[in-house]
């Protein structure tokens, strides 16, 4: 009976040893997989980061695989493929702009792409004089082309949703710095700008506009003229008061920047009667037409908008650049004073042969 007990004991010990070996092997494989998946760097580039762009029209498995091969190492690539296959990623690829930082693990990369965790584009929107300028600036930073965005801004049906027209399209832009996803469509871009515009036009600003008897778009349009007249923020409220006074009296605004806009030449240094006459048919010619032009002639700064809303009270009806070319202006209450100021400025221009 003793030999049988020994055999049974030996078999039990062998089973325990095999179990331990399998357990250790499983633990080793699990630890290796965990290390490969979460801890080991999967990147193969030397830069601090690399950006992967997956466009809406090219969100295919073939394209994503080709991009991944160039940024992650073979072991990481194989692991990514296994994760993608097991989770159905290839059937639900999310377009976008994805930044991969050096040293990222494969799971971190996979989680970013699978979850559509894009890295936004930082857009700084400053001063643009035309829709073409705006679209050219944005079109080079987002997936949509500049032509696509420009067509949207010229399409009355597209803009109707935002209570805008091609003439007033720029009035939804409040210059600032924004973070926007790369694959944002023109419609989504305008929705975001509308949200920012509504935030800017708070109750206080709306009340101020109402006191002036102007709509927000009209305030924006007047602010665009003020913005083009001077870079001196301290003078903007006074310049705004001149235009507001003219509007109250039913006088033409007579704003030189609107002539440049109507003429289509922003490099003009001296607006002459020739420029005024040649652009006479344009609704933006504020020498020939009373009231505000159909829409803004640029995207004015927030300070220019507030300069109109909080416009300084004055009796001035005219202003003219000073003859010292300091950028400041001389203000006048009547034509006689204004003609004298204008004469000095014209003389200074003539002395420098500026035509």
Which labels suit this protein?
355 residues, mainly alpha, two-stranded antiparallel sheet, 8% strand
Structure description:
- With about 350 residues, the chain is mainly alpha-helical.
- About 50% of the residues lie in helices and about 10% in strands.
- It contains 15 helices and 6 strands.
- It has a two-stranded antiparallel sheet. Strands 3-4 form a two-stranded antiparallel ribbon.
- Strand 5 (about 320) and strand 6 (about 330) form a beta hairpin.
- Helix 5 runs antiparallel to helix 6 (about 145-155) and helix 10 (about 215-230) packs across helix 11 (about 235-250).
- The chain starts with a helix and ends with a helix.
Mind sketching the topology for me?
Blueprint: H1 2-39, E1 49-54, H2 61-69, H3 74-87, E2 96-101, H4 106-114, E3 121-125, H5 131-139, H6 146-153, H7 156-160, E4 176-180, H8 186-200, H9 203-212, H10 216-229, H11 236-249, H12 256-263, H13 273-278, H14 302-309, E5 318-321, E6 329-332, H15 335-351
Helix pairs in contact: 3-4, 5-6, 10-11, 10-14, 11-14
